[in-house]
């Protein structure tokens, strides 16, 4: 989503807004990876809110 907004900001000529959205996109990717990505398995896992853990 943020990358779409960054692209629209470029079209509208607003590079600083585009950069802000690109930075937000990177933060979202890092956050998602920290919760859902399992490096040992090399795959994404489901997250179970009930017990605050990922599916194994």
UniProtKB/TrEMBL annotation:
InterPro entries attached to this UniProt entry: 6-hairpin_glycosidase_sf, 6hp_glycosidase-like_sf, Glyco_hydro_37
SUPFAM superfamilies: Six-hairpin glycosidases (SSF48208)
Domain of life: Eukaryota
GO molecular function, one term: alpha,alpha-trehalase activity
EC number in record: 3.2.1.28
Pfam families: Trehalase
Gene Ontology BP, a term: trehalose metabolic process
Family to which the UniProt record says this protein belongs: Belongs to the glycosyl hydrolase 37 family.
Name of the protein described by the UniProt record: alpha,alpha-trehalase
């Amino acid at each position: 989503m943020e990358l779409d907004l960054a692209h629209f900001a470029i079209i509208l000529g607003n590079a600083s807004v585009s950069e802000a959205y690109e930075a937000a996109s990177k933060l979202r990717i890092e956050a998602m990876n920290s919760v859902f990505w399992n490096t040992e398995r090399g795959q994404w896992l489901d997250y179970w809110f009930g017990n605050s853990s990922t599916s194994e």
